[in-house]
Amino acid sequence: MPTLADKRILLGVSGGIAAYKSADLVRRLQDQGADVHVVMTAGAREFVRPLTFQALSGNPVHTDLLDPSAEAAMGHIELAKWADVILIAPASASVMARLAGGMADDLLTTLCLATEAPVLLAPAMNQAMWRNKATQANAQTLRSRDITLLGPDAGSQACGDVGPGRMLEPLAIVDGLIDFLRPAQILAGKKVAITAGPTREALDPVRYLSNHSSGKMGFAIAAAAARAGAEVTLIAGPVRLETPADVTRVDVVSTSDMLAAAEQAADDCDLFIAAAAVVDFRPAVVADQKIKKEDGNDRDVLSLVKNPDIVATIAGRRDRRPFVVGFAAETENVIEHAKLKLARKNLDMIVANDVSAPEGGFNSDHNQVTVIDHSGEQTLPAALKTELAAELIARIANKAFSGN
Ligand code: PMT
Fold first, then answer.
1. Whole-prediction pTM
2. Closest residue (by CA) to atom 14 of ligand 1?
3. Does 363 contact ligand 1 (Cβ within 6 A)?
């Protein structure tokens, strides 16, 4: 998966000869999977035409703060909220000064004030301007407000001078951004096993019992755990999803397959997360041949027996018991039922999931959950499963390994 996949990047381009390199920067960001919207200052438009960025980014270019038609399409506050990160490259001395002064005198500076996303700058200016005490003081002020500066580089400049102030090359800016966004390695050195997707119980050679789990939630958690530095084993029921980067996948079908794989993984893991939707009952007998619709075979064709509870088995271990997190898929009295499962299955934490909500639960890209442990509960805002997974991993790691 590309490193900036699904990242929404607002690229601010301000006035300077380095603006021509920002056209390449758009491409390099897209190579990493980012969705890029470009905002240009009036100065930038003296160097490069908006059409260049529109063609490269595939999105309209934003230029004016008080343009009624642009505001009707995506208003400036909406744009500020849309961004996961604002990257200004090149950031001129003037933009740095206006940001340090807290000004909102054009679209770009207004967006920087209105956003809650992180802001990164790649400064580009003449070496004397960069060394000027005013610019240095502005850089210091911006850093103290958690604005990150990437560069500048030093070397020969377009004006003929030699010294610090050159904008970093586009690839170096992308690397700096990736480093900035890289999650903290909160699970470094930890082994994590995760169950995901449905199980399937064969009735006969052509039919089975199962459910609507797509595996998206469990796979997102596996990806987030790997990004946080864990060694991850993903025990996956039958799903059509790609294995996340740096994750070892064990494919299973039935509940007993999943239990065997979980027992093996749990022998050597610090954290066990059960996101799978395990089929609770299986046929007492799996027919060798396809079950026929014969006369008299009208009802009670199936006799079911209860499947073992995988997460409760792992949580019930006396030896080599990892920290155990379950999920609870509920359609009513969600919190109450989840708390009962937390206690009954002897879990350390449970993620309560209202699967009757229109947005979220089975097969959706979104989810809305409440995290419950023995000291309290917290409802998280509805979010993409990929974003929620990172938040869940942060909370689980904090609880399991830092004693909070
Ligand atoms: O896969 P998606 O389409 O992305 O959907 C995500 C999800 C809705 C499947 C997921 O977020 C979720 O809620 N998973 C748990 C589903 C479930 O089976 O919940 P449950 O309340 O029936 O089970 C409680 C816990 O016990 C779960 O951790 C489950 O994995 C575990 N369990 C249940 C039965 C069983 N025999 N063995 C188990 O380990």
1. 0.77
2. 275
3. yes
